[in-house]
Every structure is written in C-alpha cells, then in structure tokens.
UniProtKB/TrEMBL annotation:
Tagged with keyword Coiled coil: yes
PROSITE patterns, A to Z: LRR, UBIQUITIN_2
Lineage: Eukaryota, Metazoa, Chordata, Craniata, Vertebrata
Subcellular location: Cytoplasm, Cytoskeleton
Species, as recorded: Chunga burmeisteri (Black-legged seriema)
Reported function: Acts as a regulator of tubulin stability.
Protein name: Leucine-rich repeat-containing protein 51
Keyword Cell inner membrane: no
Any single Gene Ontology cellular-component annotation: cytoskeleton
Gene: Tbcel
Keywords: Coiled coil, Cytoplasm, Cytoskeleton, Leucine-rich repeat, Phosphoprotein, Repeat
Span of domain Ubiquitin-like: 345-425
Amino acid sequence: MDQPSGRSFMQVLCEKYSPENFPYRRGPGMGVHVPATPQGSPMKDRLNLPSVLVLNSCGITCAGDENEIAAFCAHVSELDLSDNKLEDWHEVSKIVSNVPHLEFLNLSSNPLSLSVLERRCAGSFAGVRKLVLNNSKASWETVHTILQELPDLEELFLCLNDYETVSCSPVCCQSLKLLHITDNNLQDWTEIRKLGIMFPSLDTLILANNNLTTIEESEDSLARLFPNLRSINLHKSAGLHCWEDIDKLNSFPKLEEVKLLGIPLLQSYTTEERRKLLIARLPSIVKLNGSIVADGEREDSERFFIRYYMEFPEEEVPFRYHELVTKYGKLEPLAVVDLRPQSSVKVEVHFQDKVEEMSIRLDQTVAELKKHLKTVVQLSTSNMLLFYLDQEAPFGPEELKYSSRALHSYGIRDGDKIYVEPRMK
C-alpha cells in the first residue's frame, strides 16, 4: 500500500511512536525515553520516543513544526530517514538542527539531488559522525559542502550514486576514517587516488562492485596517499587482471585486512590455491576475505608459494618467490602419495613341494581364490584348505576359512605366502 505524499517528519513521528503503535516498555535494551514537555505542547503525554528513530519509507517531504521536533528529539542520537521523499536540503536542515545530539543520519534514497545544499544548511549537520547518502545521487559539490561543515565526520556512505569520477575537495577531511563507496563506476585508479588526497586519515576504504582497473601508482606514492589505510575491500573489481596489482597493496604501510573476491585474476585458481597465493604475496595482512590468517597458515602458504613457482621459467617467477626462498631455503617438491587401497599383490603359493609366485586380486573372496587355484594345485575347491602367512606375523599361518570374506580384509601384502593343503578325509 502506497504511503500518502506530502507528510511531515513530525506527523509521521506522532503516528509511529504514539502509545497505540509504540507503547512504553521497560527492560534491558529498550532505550525508551519520555522527554520533558515544553509549556504549551499539546502532545505532553502522547509520545514515547527511543534514542534511535527509524522513519524510513514513510513518504516524508518536509520537517513540520520545528518547536515540536526540538521538544521531543532532544535525546535522539540516530535517525533513519531513508527512502522518503525529501528533496529540499532546507527541510532536512530544519529537522537536523532541532536534534542537537544527532550522531548518525541516514538520508539514502531521497531525491536530494534536486536541490543545492548551502553551507548555512550544512552547518546544522555539524555534530553528525556517520552520514549515509547512498542512492541519493548527491553531487560531489554537495559532498564537499558537507565535508567543510562536519568537523567530526568519521564515516561516510556514498554507494549507488553513479559516480564515474571523483572531484577533489578544496580542503582535506582529516576526521574521516571509513569511506563506503561501493556500486559506482570508478574505473580509473587516478580517481581513487583523489580519495587518498581528500581523506588522509582513512582507515577503511570499501570499493566493492566498481570496475576498477589496474593500480597505476608507484609504491612511494601509494604510501603517501593512504598512510593510515588498515582495510581495503576490492570485491568484484572487474579490471584487476595481473598479480602486480595485488603486490602493490603491500605499499600501504598499515594495511592489515584485504577483501578480494570476484576478481578475474583469481578465477582460474582453486579456492585453496587462491587463498594461499594471496596470503604468501601479502605478508602484512592478518585477515583475508573476512577470515583470520593464523601463523601456521601463513607458513604453509609461503611454502606452498615456493613449490608452486619452483618449476616456472625464471622470467615468470615473482620477486616474492626469491624473498621466500631466502626465508625457507629451496624446498623439495612434495612427494606424491597414492592413498588408494592396493588392488592386487604378489604372493608365494606353496603346495606340497612346489612354490609358485602369483598375482592375486584383493577384492576377490576366499571362495573365488580357491576357484583360481584349482587348476594350479589340481584340487577341487571342496577339498582345498588355504592358510595365509604374514611374513611379519609371529603367530604362524592363519586359515582362510570363511568363503565369503574378501582377501583385502586379511591385510595380505606383497611377499606374503599362501599354503594350500588337501582336506583330510
């Protein structure tokens, strides 16, 4: 059912958090707060507001009575206004300016690209630390205005905004730690480097689902651009086709966590090969694709890396190979061990004074072996007794008395002996 258009923030707030829809509850984690009501307010006992307000998909187009917002939202710290119909930054400013303790604001999927954000409006966002503008189609000019007015902004979400380029801000944002800019179309590394210039304190950069191509940057330049980067997400970077791009991640001096799924370069490898080769090439990372890299796993991966490249032509061997050979020495290839059960053995068949070496199948039964031996010893199967002597057993021969028992269950090995004797009448 479609929401009616032209609804105010205050109107939706009153409806959703009225006692009928949101009754006051006590208990751990409820976080419900009833603020003091200013004189003259007609809603003195009507609203029970938590500190986290979720008003997404409510058809909100405007703020409503600012005095009422100030009266009931003084304690609010998080506000989700995603997927509404807010298209005027002035209306957003009226809401935010009356929520003095607001730290988290989600404006995703509002048509805010239809208006210009002026600096005086952006000033009302000053206390916000986490701002979500996904699918808002916010221009870089809007982003720059926000950055200049939010001195404590730590996390910024700019996903699904159809960015093909990055426009540098006239000033650096020293406070930003996390930038989530997935599902855009940032292909050229020259655009990504601008993010390093704008956000020198960046700790986490999430670039998944962009069409990023090769990382064209020197190692020294990468270290200067992202001196504090600890985590990078490059999931589904369709343009990364060579191992040199992966090696360049080692240039980030504080990098510890990498996410690299859906990369064309890695598709031809098995899951095990992919993980081991990445761990060996990235010696500083402690977490790969969300999983901790244990000390034992790192050593196994680095030894695997040496053996993987040991037969490659010299011109194709990466520099990391030589570093690891210096660390571990030249390793011998792993022995190929066939763990399949043995299917046949060579045994000595003893009958009277005769000895004949024969190859027998271990999957056959005692009865089938007797049939096989019938022409050799000239005895009928009903008149034949078989004894098996393990060359290492201290207890002497064991009679093979159960006709339906398979030979492999006796543990017969090459060099063992089978004795055939006639049944005594």
